[in-house]
Amino acid sequence: MYDVHDWANTVLVSALTSGVVALGIEWLAKPRLEARKERILQLHRVRRTFEADVLAVLANSAKLSEAAAQRLPGDLKKSDVPSEMR
User: Fold this and answer.
1) How far apart are alpha carbons 1 and 23 in whole angstroms?
2) How far apart are CA 75 and CA 84, in angstroms?
3) Cα separation, 73 vs 81, whole angstroms
4) Interval 29-65: pLDDT, tens
5) How far apart are CA 1 and CA 51, in angstroms?
6) DSSP-derived 3-state class of residue 1
7) Contact status, residue 17 vs residue 10, Cβ threshold 8 Å
8) How far apart are CA 30 and CA 66, in angstroms?
């Protein structure tokens, strides 16, 4: 049979174990995890900035190629084209 002393001892040991594990994680693992989190967040910020820059370059190059394509036929007048290319 269980008596109150055994039950109280089990609860006390469980509470102390839980407290030691929680403090150990807080003191030992958490600083490393926080530093890792900052590196990961910085990497994601840089990646988002790079993606935005690439999209801007692609959009601007599409605009430039469209503008050049619209302007191209007007630039190629028959008088401007050398006779050997006609």
Assistant:
1) 34
2) 18
3) 12
4) 888 989 999 999 999 999 999 999 999 999 998 888 8
5) 68
6) coil
7) no
8) 54
